[in-house]
Amino acid sequence: MSADLDTVFSALADPTRRAILSMLLEDDMAVSDVADPFDMSLAAISKHLRVLTAAGLIEQERRGRVTWCKLQPDALRSASIWMQSFGQFEAVELDAFERFLRSELLELGEGPARP
Protein backbone atom coordinates (compact mmCIF):
# COMPACT_ATOMS: atom_id res chain seq x y z
CA MET A 1 0.00 0.00 0.00
CA SER A 2 2.89 2.38 0.71
CA ALA A 3 4.17 2.20 -2.87
CA ASP A 4 0.65 2.89 -4.18
CA LEU A 5 0.29 5.88 -1.86
CA ASP A 6 3.69 7.19 -2.92
CA THR A 7 2.69 6.93 -6.57
CA VAL A 8 -0.67 8.65 -6.03
CA PHE A 9 0.77 11.48 -3.92
CA SER A 10 3.64 11.93 -6.36
CA ALA A 11 1.14 12.28 -9.20
CA LEU A 12 -0.95 14.73 -7.16
CA ALA A 13 2.10 16.83 -6.27
CA ASP A 14 2.11 18.58 -9.64
CA PRO A 15 -0.35 21.47 -10.16
CA THR A 16 -0.81 20.65 -13.85
CA ARG A 17 -1.85 17.10 -13.02
CA ARG A 18 -4.25 18.33 -10.34
CA ALA A 19 -5.77 20.73 -12.88
CA ILE A 20 -6.17 17.87 -15.35
CA LEU A 21 -7.97 15.78 -12.72
CA SER A 22 -10.28 18.72 -11.98
CA MET A 23 -11.09 19.01 -15.67
CA LEU A 24 -11.88 15.31 -15.86
CA LEU A 25 -14.33 15.63 -12.96
CA GLU A 26 -16.69 17.20 -15.49
CA ASP A 27 -16.53 14.51 -18.19
CA ASP A 28 -14.25 12.30 -20.24
CA MET A 29 -12.02 14.33 -22.55
CA ALA A 30 -9.90 13.79 -25.62
CA VAL A 31 -6.18 14.30 -25.03
CA SER A 32 -6.18 17.31 -27.37
CA ASP A 33 -9.00 18.90 -25.33
CA VAL A 34 -7.09 18.27 -22.10
CA ALA A 35 -4.06 20.02 -23.61
CA ASP A 36 -5.96 23.12 -24.85
CA PRO A 37 -5.94 25.23 -21.66
CA PHE A 38 -2.25 24.67 -20.96
CA ASP A 39 0.67 26.59 -22.37
CA MET A 40 2.76 23.50 -23.08
CA SER A 41 3.28 21.01 -25.86
CA LEU A 42 1.08 18.01 -26.47
CA ALA A 43 4.12 15.85 -25.66
CA ALA A 44 4.42 17.49 -22.22
CA ILE A 45 0.71 16.94 -21.54
CA SER A 46 1.10 13.33 -22.64
CA LYS A 47 3.83 12.87 -20.04
CA HIS A 48 1.53 14.20 -17.34
CA LEU A 49 -1.21 11.86 -18.54
CA ARG A 50 1.17 8.89 -18.37
CA VAL A 51 1.99 9.75 -14.74
CA LEU A 52 -1.71 9.97 -13.88
CA THR A 53 -2.37 6.69 -15.70
CA ALA A 54 0.50 4.93 -13.91
CA ALA A 55 -0.93 6.11 -10.59
CA GLY A 56 -4.32 4.71 -11.58
CA LEU A 57 -5.95 8.14 -11.33
CA ILE A 58 -7.07 8.16 -14.94
CA GLU A 59 -7.66 5.65 -17.69
CA GLN A 60 -6.83 6.30 -21.33
CA GLU A 61 -8.88 4.63 -24.05
CA ARG A 62 -8.36 4.76 -27.78
CA ARG A 63 -11.58 5.36 -29.74
CA GLY A 64 -10.77 5.43 -33.42
CA ARG A 65 -8.03 7.98 -33.92
CA VAL A 66 -8.69 9.80 -30.66
CA THR A 67 -7.38 8.93 -27.20
CA TRP A 68 -9.84 9.72 -24.43
CA CYS A 69 -9.08 10.27 -20.76
CA LYS A 70 -11.42 9.20 -18.00
CA LEU A 71 -11.13 9.90 -14.28
CA GLN A 72 -10.78 6.84 -12.02
CA PRO A 73 -11.95 8.21 -8.65
CA ASP A 74 -11.57 4.87 -6.85
CA ALA A 75 -7.81 5.24 -7.19
CA LEU A 76 -7.95 8.00 -4.60
CA ARG A 77 -9.59 5.71 -2.06
CA SER A 78 -6.38 4.50 -0.39
CA ALA A 79 -5.05 8.06 -0.17
CA SER A 80 -8.35 9.25 1.25
CA ILE A 81 -8.39 6.47 3.86
CA TRP A 82 -4.82 7.29 4.85
CA MET A 83 -5.62 11.01 5.21
CA GLN A 84 -8.79 10.32 7.21
CA SER A 85 -6.73 8.50 9.81
CA PHE A 86 -5.44 11.91 10.88
CA GLY A 87 -8.99 13.05 11.56
CA GLN A 88 -8.96 11.17 14.85
CA PHE A 89 -7.02 14.01 16.47
CA GLU A 90 -9.00 16.91 17.87
CA ALA A 91 -8.41 20.29 16.31
CA VAL A 92 -6.17 22.60 18.28
CA GLU A 93 -8.07 25.33 20.04
CA LEU A 94 -6.37 28.32 18.44
CA ASP A 95 -7.20 30.87 21.15
CA ALA A 96 -5.62 28.71 23.83
CA PHE A 97 -2.60 28.12 21.60
CA GLU A 98 -2.26 31.86 21.01
CA ARG A 99 -2.41 32.55 24.77
CA PHE A 100 0.25 29.92 25.35
CA LEU A 101 2.55 31.45 22.74
CA ARG A 102 2.03 34.94 24.18
CA SER A 103 2.92 33.76 27.68
CA GLU A 104 6.02 32.00 26.36
CA LEU A 105 7.13 35.13 24.51
CA LEU A 106 6.59 37.24 27.65
CA GLU A 107 8.74 34.88 29.67
CA LEU A 108 11.46 35.24 27.08
CA GLY A 109 10.99 39.02 27.05
CA GLU A 110 10.25 39.06 23.35
CA GLY A 111 6.95 40.83 23.12
CA PRO A 112 4.40 43.06 24.78
CA ALA A 113 1.60 41.55 26.78
CA ARG A 114 -1.82 41.50 25.18
CA PRO A 115 -5.15 40.65 26.74
UniProtKB/TrEMBL annotation:
- Which segments constitute the HTH arsR-type domain? 1-93
Gene3D superfamilies attached here?
Winged helix-like DNA-binding domain superfamily/Winged helix DNA-binding domain
Q: Which SUPFAM superfamilies match?
A: Winged helix' DNA-binding domain (SSF46785)
Bilayer-crossing regions: none
**Single GO term (MF):** DNA-binding transcription factor activity
Q: Name one Pfam family in it.
A: HTH_20
Q: Which SMART domains match?
A: HTH_ARSR
Per the record, the domain of life is Bacteria
Q: What protein does this entry describe?
A: Winged helix-turn-helix transcriptional regulator
| Protein's organism | Histidinibacterium aquaticum
